[in-house]
Design brief:
The chain has 334 residues and is mainly alpha-helical. Helix content is 75%, strand content 1%. It has 14 helices and 2 strands; from the N terminus they run ααααααββαααααααα.
Length: 334
């Protein structure tokens, strides 16, 4: 991508960052902090997939694979003492970047449902390989014994450490994607999303931009996966399958992918909604498995698509327009 002239920080997001920084000091509870860590980690994943699906119009379903590969590569390097955890995160990101580039050269020649089917097949292949390659990945029992993340002698041993690390990564990715999409590259990406013919007619290099956004979002997913594996210090193939894909699609649909921050908002709502479901429906459904979660999220996707197709961000924008019209009408009547 061309070097972008990055925008100034939005005061609203500066306020959000300050609020997130102060949250552990206000709550002091490990439960809220642990949930918010997962919100940040999965938020990076949702932001990157939302940018690919909604901003670029590339219906790729491979994001759980990049997330899983980032987790496994970093975890294996640390478990086998091949590289320190911080270096393992970088190596995993580079590895995923190379793999996504090599696969993207061929996959991105496909469009629409064909791309979705091909990338879904990739998701299945990666999941099978992670499960069957037991001597390296730990097989279906999972990769155990992952050491805590350490950087320069500082060990991330507490929830609060991972809280600040994960939210720093999440807000950095949000800031980066927001500025890219607001710049020249972002306008070119949105142009081929709307019409490839019109975009080509003004000289946009569509194959190159598709490949760049595909690789960029894959690397972001890898970073999230690496932080995830060092936080829970365990990983297994079942985490990175269809259930995760449904959750991500729910986050994007619920939040509204037309705005870059929409998937992050959807991620926040989905996680706390799931906590609510587990808390208050535990007596009715004693065994709330990932498959039960997927059913709830599937129902949410259907309801949102029917009654609120723009997601929460679309509804907020519409409510803002109503408010402006009401205020303008009130002033006119004075």
């Amino acid at each position: 991508m061309r070097a972008e002239r990055f925008l100034q920080l939005n005061p609203f997001w500066v306020a959000v960052a300050i609020a997130l920084f102060l949250l552990p000091l206000v709550t002091g509870g490990s439960y809220i902090i642990s949930v918010m860590i997962f919100v940040a980690i999965y938020g990076v994943l949702a932001l990157s997939m939302g940018a690919l699906l909604e901003q670029a119009g590339l219906f790729s379903l491979a994001h759980p694979s990049w997330f899983g590969l980032g987790a496994y590569v970093a975890g294996i390097l640390a478990v086998r003492d091949i590289a320190p955890p911080w270096l393992g995160i970088i190596i995993a990101a580079v590895f995923v970047g190379i793999v996504s580039y090599l696969l993207g050269v061929g996959l991105l020649r496909l469009q629409g449902y064909y791309l979705a089917c091909a990338t879904f097949a990739l998701l299945l292949v990666v999941s099978i390989i992670l499960g069957q390659w037991g001597e390296v990945t730990g097989g279906h029992e999972g990769l155990m014994g992952i050491p805590p993340l350490s950087i320069g002698g500082f060990e991330f041993s507490e929830n609060i450490h991972y809280y600040y690390l994960s939210w720093a990564l999440c807000l950095l990715c949000l800031w980066f994607l927001t500025n890219v999409m607001a710049g020249r590259t972002g306008r070119a990406i949105k142009s081929f999303r709307d019409s490839e013919v019109a975009s080509q007619s003004v000289g946009v290099n569509i194959p190159r931009l598709k490949l760049q956004i595909f690789v960029l979002t894959a690397v972001m997913a890898s970073l999230a996966g690496s932080v995830y594996c060092f936080y829970i210090r365990f990983t297994m193939p079942d985490i990175f399958t269809l259930t995760l894909l449904i959750e991500l699609l729910t986050m994007i649909v619920l939040g509204g992918g037309k705005k870059v921050y929409g998937p992050l908002l959807g991620c926040l709502v989905v996680f706390w909604l799931r906590e609510f479901i587990h808390m208050y429906l535990g007596d009715i459904l004693p065994v709330l498995t990932a498959e039960v979660d997927a059913i709830f999220f599937g129902v949410i996707i259907i309801v949102i698509l029917i009654y609120m197709p723009g997601g929460l961000t679309g509804w907020m924008e519409q409510a803002g327009n109503w408010g402006k019209k009401f205020y303008a009408g009130a002033r006119k009547n004075k």
